[in-house]
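Continuing the series of single-chain predictions for the mutant panel. This is the parent chain; the variants come on the following pages.
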Amino acid sequence: MVRAILWDVDGTLLDFAAAEKAAIQRLFIEFGLGECTDDMVARYAAINDGYWKRLERGEITKREVLIGRFREFFTELGIDPDLSEAFNARYQHALGDTVVYRDDSLVIVKSLHGRVKQYVVSNGTIVAQTKKLQRSHLGEWMDGIFLSEELGAEKPSPRFFEKVFAALPGMSRSDMLIVGDSLTSDMKGGLDAGIPTCWYNPNRLPRPADMAIDYEIQNLQQIQELL
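Parent structure:
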């Protein structure tokens, strides 16, 4: 029986790509860098994804992700990479300005309130996630928020989940369900920690043969069927 849902935020409850695109394109104008085309945003997204995957593998630090991705992106475009730190600082705030729900996620979270405990588990920065959760009102319906910067460990590290477990005494791992879109962060983290897993896969990507994922959904509304 599911007593607690551990929700990922970016790409699961909220459309991260929409917020990412809006933030970068607006900041290019704000910093006097001209137009940031959709192709440029796509290139940045690919660079960014690579940096986060390296973080998940424990190869680099969070700071190296936040600054390094923009340094590499700007260098490719012929933009002064020394702008990276200031750009990232503004970017963390700008990410929270665009709220696009996935599958009416706010309605779903509100409908589950009181039926199961709900917690955020995210690798996003404190600045960005705090603003997103406030502006989206998702935070109001959560029973707790676990951010990697506060815990001192990133998903999928077992240390991240051990700190979550320590904060939820009386809740067994089998009572939990982690729901997220990332195979390398959410699903691997849940599997390594011994938590039942639910892969949010709206694009119907092939399920990896080497991952024993418990559930797969294409729409967040399907979470109701698992409770």
